[in-house]
Input
Amino acid sequence: MKVFYTTFALSVAHIIGGFFSPPIGQIDGSVLTAIGFLVLFATVAKLPEAIKASKSVKFTTDHFTAQIDAKN
Output
């Protein structure tokens, strides 16, 4: 769980640092990527809970699909 909090804190630092680095106030693509990572971390944190509850989980991007099926 330490890894989760470390990477989460680094992502928040990336967002803050990216916003205050020159040009100040302009949101760069890297800041938007960091925000996407925050959403990813929140999703990954819930995966063990979903697996224990025996629910189906499916992640899909353009070229990648990951699926965890429910246990019977």
In short: The chain has two helices and two strands. The two ends are 29 Å apart (CA to CA). The longest strand covers residues 57-60. The helical segments are 2-20, 29-52.
